[in-house]
Amino acid sequence: MLKTIAIGADDAASTLKDIIINHIKAKGLEIVDYSESKTRNENDYPDIAFELATAIKSGLHDRGILLCGTGIGMSIVANKVNGVRCAQCHDTYSAQRARKSNNAQVISLGARVIGPELAKEIINEWLLSEFEGGGSAPKVEKISKYEQKI
After folding, report:
1. What is the pLDDT of residue 147?
2. Residues tagged active-site
3. Which GO terms describe its biological process (predicted)?
4. Which of these CATH numbers, 3.40.50.720, 3.40.630.10, 3.40.1400.10, 3.40.720.10, describes 4-149?
């Protein structure tokens, strides 16, 4: 069972963030918002994504959701944190495979790319999916080994 979900959004995705927070709470899950922080002055997506990804890596939350205009910038930053796998997804199949095949703990979505209803469907699929291991396990392990080389 999931403990907590972290969420972070920049100003381009603040409306979608509010919708997603309500959606997650309606599922009975706890959600922690990293969109604004007392430790930084600005609402820049690199700061938000890095702070959320670092919290995921440290085990503070089970999973994280990042939202910006396209989902691209947030994903790039989150993937800079060793041990964190963030997948940018704009369809339910990619969200499912991000978990089942790649064990992605973080998902990024673009508020200017998809609408709220599709965002909720994508997040539902991602939350319901678990890493299957199998033939994907050695590949995910290889990703971790590459991270250690940096």
Report:
1. 83
2. 68
3. carbohydrate metabolic process
4. 3.40.1400.10
